[in-house]
Specification:
Blueprint (H helix, E strand, L loop, with lengths): L2 E3 L6 E3 L1 E3 L11 H13 L4 E3 L8 H10 L8 E6 L12 H15 L4 E6 L8 H13 L3 E7 L3 H14 L4 E5 L13 H5 L5 E4 L23 H4 L10 H9 L1 H6 L4 H10 L4 E6 L4 H8 L8 H12 L1
Parallel strand pairs: 3-10, 4-5, 5-6, 6-7, 7-8, 8-9, 9-10
Antiparallel strand pairs: 1-2
Length: 312
């Protein structure tokens, strides 16, 4: 496993991050979830990402129970706030930043998180109020660094300007969706982030599992897969044309000795502004496969082949 510095923070994070959306605290049986966490640590994954809203708090509770058995300095822990919680709290007001972080810390059984992230941009709260509250929780020692998720380049730049103006701690990370099938962050998020000491922590690098190649055009999704159980969560990636392009990537992966998943992860990791790619895992063997993408360097001809297929 290779590690990268997260923005201009002092955090060194594994190139593969263990995510917990739609998995831990509900969908995956407890013993299996524990086995996934154990496997992640065995493989050198030191970065764990969650959010208060995942499984309505149960993902944080699960992680709190399993991570408390490990030295606190052996992993980098990130969580988020924004979406409505069972107590009705939502958004990025100063009150919610304080309240939701305290609740997350209780569930996670820790005194601090390494990275506290705004899960979305809040149009209803003045940005300076949110950033001042983030600075407050950092100064209080409840979070070491702050980040954002699903923010545009313009929103990120506005945050950086305000933080510099007021002397507040600024974001060191951005968490956008990014994959071979979703490249929009290249247009504005990456260009703004690079000169401002902000790294990307990308989610859905396998496009909801479509880039594993397990979904084939003209065939119904297999029972037990996400596409079968939660078709509304597939974000259009199971359209026939998309699935056909993904299958045309298979010979490229075979030619460089990789699985489709490893090719897709190595492709996102080619980006210097990227610190880590978040993967979910319901089985330990998925982590073995995905972790093997760390350190893989794709040559120019392979990247050109991939681009040509996706543009077809």
């Amino acid at each position: 496993m290779r590690y990268r510095r997260l923005g201009d923070s002092d955090l060194q994070v594994s190139e593969i991050c263990l995510g917990s959306w739609l998995t831990y605290g509900g969908a995956v049986e407890r013993a299996q979830a524990e086995a996934c966490v154990d496997t992640a640590f065995e493989l050198g994954i030191n970065f764990v990402d969650t959010a208060n809203v995942y499984s309505r708090g149960r993902a944080e509770e699960f992680l709190g129970e399993v991570l408390t058995l490990r030295p606190r300095d052996s992993y980098v822990l990130a969580t988020k706030l924004f979406a409505e919680m069972p107590d009705g709290g939502r958004g990025l007001s100063p009150e919610q930043v304080r309240t939701q972080l305290d609740a997350s810390l209780r569930r996670l059984k820790t005194d601090y998180v390494d990275l506290y992230q705004a899960h979305a941009y809040d149009e209803d709260v003045p940005l300076d109020e949110t950033l001042a509250a983030f600075d407050e929780v950092v100064q209080a020692g409840k979070a070491r660094w702050i980040g954002v998720s699903n923010w545009s380049g313009e929103q990120i730049q506005s945050a950086v300007y305000l933080c510099r103006e007021h002397g507040w701690v600024k974001p060191v990370s951005s968490q956008p969706e990014y994959s071979l099938l979703h490249r929009e962050p290249e247009e504005d998020v990456f260009p703004v982030s690079r000169p401002n000491g902000i790294s990307q922590i990308v989610y859905s690098p396998l496009a909801q599992g479509v880039l594993t190649g397990k979904y084939r055009p003209g065939e119904p999704p297999a029972e037990g897969t996400r596409a079968a159980a939660r078709p509304d969560d597939m974000w259009g990636y199971t359209e026939e044309a998309v699935l056909a392009r993904v299958q045309r990537l298979r010979p490229v992966a075979d030619g460089v000795g990789l699985t489709l998943s490893q090719l897709a992860l190595a492709w996102v990791l080619r980006e210097p502004n990227l610190a880590s790619a978040i993967v979910g895992a319901s089985r330990p063997e998925q982590l073995y496969e995905n972790a093997a993408a760390s350190g893989v360097e794709l040559d120019g001809s392979t990247l050109a082949e991939v681009d040509a297929i996706l543009a077809s």
